[in-house]
Amino acid sequence: MAHIGLIGLGVMGQNLVRNMARHGFQVAIYNRTRAKTEAFAHEHPDPNIVPTYTLDEFVAQLERPRRVMLMVKAGAPVDAVVEQVRPLLEPGDIIVDGGNSHFTDTERRQRALEPHGIHFLGVGISGGEEGALWGPSIMPGGPREAYDAVAPIFEAIAAKAEDGEPCVTYLGPGGAGHYVKMVHNGIEYAVMQAIAEVYDLLRRVGGLQVSDLAAVFEEWNRAELASFLMEITAHILRVKDPESGDPLVERILDKAGQKGTGKWTSQNAFDVGIPVPSITAAVEARIISAFKEERVRAAQLLPGPVPEAQGQNRLQLIEEGREALFADMVVAYAQGMALLRGAAAEYGYTYHLADVAKIWRAGCIIRAALLEDIRRAFAEAPDLPNLLLADTFRQALGERQQGWREALVAGLTNGVPMPVTAASLAYYDSYRRERLPANLIQAQRDYFGAHTYERVDKPGTFHTEWHQL
Ligand code: NBP
User: Distance (Å, rounded) from C-alpha 243 to C-alpha 404?
Assistant: First the structure.
């Protein structure tokens, strides 16, 4: 009998099946389009991979309680497959959705399946196709007993951090797993945009060639900025277009796509009431990039400084860029972690932030050397309200903030947009300000809407008839 069944043989599904089979689990597989199952079974003949061509046949292969994992496109396809497979299952069986579903959809599906006694786990999986094959980071949420029934499989196939710990842990009930995956993707958006901004600054203002930048990023990736996204960026900058011989990256149209998970993070952050301005700036940077034709016209019409290569200050600018990028990264994780803390209170999720950092250390797209420091910070102080307050990061940002500010000034002076860097620094400066100009906002609200205000010098609620004064 098969230990688990997997429906949906896209690139992620196929690679997860191979990963499970390699670890000795027998996997029954099914795909809506039969030809894909046939081709996959033909390419990967393996006694641990059991192809099936009807859902009845698929379900009949599974040991009890049945574990059915879905790797189909998020949205309506998940509902369609759940609808088809549910009547074939029994109370106690488990459906695992491993796609990028919205956490509220996961919670809706859990409620719908509960009366049938079927457990539904919402599991975020990060690492792309390579991760799925060799070890992803896995973010599971839902009923605890259902997680325990799949834990041995997930622990075997997950990425292992340097200390040997698997990058998976139970994150809590409801949509906790998909929630953590959503925030992971929000952080991913912010870090990617921060890297792109420093690339742009050093290209336009520093006058660096792409190959020089590749060398700079390779060096940065050997120290505190070491991360998967830095590593692939340095690699990308080395790749030449076979047709022109130019760096391929310079031939790529500057219109960024998105599948919506970054947007979900910002949308939900507004609902939970936790600011994530760096993530929002990154989502908006992708949106504005899509207005290519309008930008081409505006470039002719709107005046602004022309970026000026600063030959003599190049080394200094590179150093400032490095400091800015490190600070931007820390702030992106700080905002994501603050959102996770807010969501735990709002939705009853039970994850510990140290555990979230722990399972992001390997396998996933936002894996980075600094995640071990983040894990340690939350392990030592579980109630830390914001990562920026941890000694390590307080000191690190303190030492780098002059460079951080100078890099942003160089962008502003030369008309190079750095929305994530600007948002990150404004977040840092807002968070560390004892007094913000919100006193004036309160006065304005009271002026036009009699919304009242509190005072700094005495308790109570006050209203002023501003018009009469
Ligand atoms: P896709 O997101 O492209 O989905 C393809 C699979 O969905 C195929 O097996 C397809 O069957 C099936 N499917 C669709 Br589409 N509609 C269906 C329906 N109505 N009924 C039954 N099956 C249906 O595949 P993927 O890129 O492997 O991603 C799978 C999930 O993992 C997604 O939620 C994705 O967001 C998430 N994810 C992807 C990555 C990545 O790097 N690609 C990383 C992390 C997470 P067919 O063969 O019959 O069309």
Answer: 38
Nearest atom in ligand 1 to the alpha carbon of residue 13 is 27
CB 40 within 8 A of CB 51: yes
Cα of 177 from ligand 1 centre, angstroms: 18
Q: What is the residue-level pLDDT of the chain in tens, covering all 469 positions?
A: 999 999 999 999 999 999 999 999 999 999 999 999 999 999 999 999 999 999 999 999 999 999 999 999 999 999 999 999 999 999 999 999 999 999 999 999 999 999 999 999 999 999 999 999 999 999 999 999 999 999 999 999 999 999 999 999 999 999 999 999 999 999 999 999 999 999 999 999 999 999 999 999 999 999 999 999 999 999 999 999 999 999 999 999 999 998 889 999 999 999 999 999 999 999 999 999 999 999 999 999 999 998 877 666 899 999 999 999 999 999 999 999 999 999 999 999 999 999 999 999 999 999 999 999 999 999 999 999 999 999 999 999 999 999 999 999 999 999 999 999 999 999 999 999 999 999 999 999 999 999 999 999 999 999 999 999 9
Sign of the CA dihedral running 60, 62, 65, 66: negative
* Count of the separate structural domains present in the chain: 3
CA distance 362 to 188: 14
Q: Ligand 1 pocket: which residues have CB below 6 Å?
A: 8-13, 31-33, 36, 71-74, 77, 80-81, 99-100, 125-126, 128-129
The model carries a pTM of 0.96
The Cα–Cα gap between 67 and 89 comes to 10
The secondary structure of 11-44 as a DSSP string is HHHHHHHHHHHHTT--EEEE-SSHHHHHHHHHHS
| Protein residue with its CA nearest to atom 4 in ligand 1 | 73
Give me the CATH number covering residue 190. Answer: 1.10.1040.10
Domain that holds residue 166: 4-174
* 270 membership: H or E segment, kind and range: helix 261-272
Are residues 139 and 185 both part of a single domain?
no
Strand-strand pairing, 137-141 and 119-126: antiparallel
Does one domain contain both 162 and 190? no
CATH code assigned at 126: 3.40.50.720
